[in-house]
Amino acid sequence: MDSDTLQQEIFRIVQPYVKLRKYLLLSIGIVYKNQSTTLLYTGSDTSFKEEDKPFIYEIGSISKVFTTTVLGEMIQKDLLSKGDSIGRYIPKLSDNHPVTLSHLANHTSGIPGIGLWKSITNLFDSKTPRDPYCLFSLGEVIDYFYKHRKEPKLKFRYSNAGMGLLGHILAMKLNTDYETAIKKIITDPLHMEDTFILVPSEKKQRVLQGHDVKGREQQPLHMSDFMGAGALRSTVDDMLKFMKAHISSENKGYQLTQKATLKIAKNMNVGLGWFLEDEIVWHNGSTQGFSSFLGFDPAQQIGVIVLSNYRSRLFATNPNQIGTDILKLLRTS
Q1: What is the dihedral of CA 169, 173, 177, 181, to 10 degrees?
Q2: Proportion of the chain above pLDDT 70, given as a percent
Q3: Residue 49's pLDDT is what?
Q4: Does the predicted TM-score (pTM) go above 0.70?
Q5: CA separation (Å) from 235 to 13, 195, 230?
Q6: Which tens digit of pLDDT belongs to each residue from 95-128?
Q7: Which residues lie closer than 8 Å to 323 by C-beta, 6 or more apart?
Q8: Cβ(169)–Cβ(231) below 8 Å
């Protein structure tokens, strides 16, 4: 498939999404074997200047695979083991607590991701600060594991707090904070100069305004306890660098995260953070004003990153579907 035909097919895929969102800035990055390109689609009421690019988006839960990539790199450097008990790093817990770093990384630690009773009790507890999308504060998570000292059953329960705790532990092990850990292990080596949690003042003009599903402007996301679950911001150019590093066979720490650890559905496994489905390695993200998708086929050396400044409806065309459809297109071209 030639370049013009490919762009026409991608436009066909994204057009139903673009036409419904007036203030949309949709960035797409594509890796195809040794080549890469970026595309930008705008809504009807959007204007932008070429020199303002690349735009900065909240990437939401794609932050989780940054966290597990740090874990993979630290394992590769023999700084720790994925089988280490979390009790080795949390003084309140026993050194042989049965929950391991691997349990946090593949969402099998037992901590609830969603809980009706906890959600209700949180409504009456205004004194305990909790990050967005998290049922627990850092102290509450540690208390939970203190009270639950049995080996967790290998049941997948997606948990922002669990992954956030993993990021907290990794940063402590490196004697730093989470954002600095990401910078040291990932963004500096990959020359990702536009990936961070706190946006430098000189780059704030490139941060996009986020919108909810109805197009209403949303406030920026702020997380403190569990940054590793969803606090990162990035650009399509930087995310291409991150994806290329994962597609490459050179980096063993990165590849470690892509190995299946648990089957969670008929055609789906979970690695360390990543979902593995039909030879595709992927993760998505969503905040109040942004949504995103990152997926790649390491065997075919192809991948797609989709970044949107709109939160997506669950059962409608969204960056997940756009990314998946583009990957299908690339795999058959």
Answers
A1: -100
A2: 95
A3: 52
A4: yes
A5: 21, 7, 15
A6: 999 999 999 999 999 988 767 667 767 777 777 8
A7: 282, 284, 293, 294, 295, 304, 305, 306
A8: no
Greater pLDDT, 116 or 32: 32
Place of tokens 């969204």: 318
Q: Write the pLDDT tens digit of every residue in 203-255.
A: 999 999 999 999 999 999 999 999 999 999 999 999 999 999 999 988 999 99
Q: How many Å from the N-terminal Cα to the C-terminal Cα in the chain?
A: 6
The torsion region of residue 278 among left (phi > 0), alpha (psi -120 to 50) and beta comes to left
DSSP string, 61-78: GGHHHHHHHHHHHHHHTT
Q: Is the dihedral of CA 107, 168, 294, 36 positive or negative?
A: negative
Structure tokens given for 328: 């299908």
Q: What is the pLDDT of residues 129-158, one digit of tens each?
A: 887 888 889 999 999 999 998 888 878 999
Look at residues 135, 158, 138 and name the one whose alpha carbon lies nearest to residue 86.
Answer: 138
Helix axes 63-76, 160-173, angle to 10 degrees: 40
Q: Which of 78, 75, 3 is nearest to 39 (CA)?
A: 3
Three-state DSSP string of 14-33: HHHHHCCCCCCEEEEEEEEC
| Dihedral of alpha carbons 156, 293, 309, 179, sign | positive
pLDDT at residue 45 in the model: 67
| Mean pLDDT across 181-190 | 98
Residue 137, CA distances (Å) to 62, 102, 161, 164, 309 in order? 21, 21, 8, 10, 27
- Measured over the CA atoms of residue 55, residue 58, residue 62 and residue 63, the dihedral's sign is positive
Return the residue matching tokens 């370049």: 3
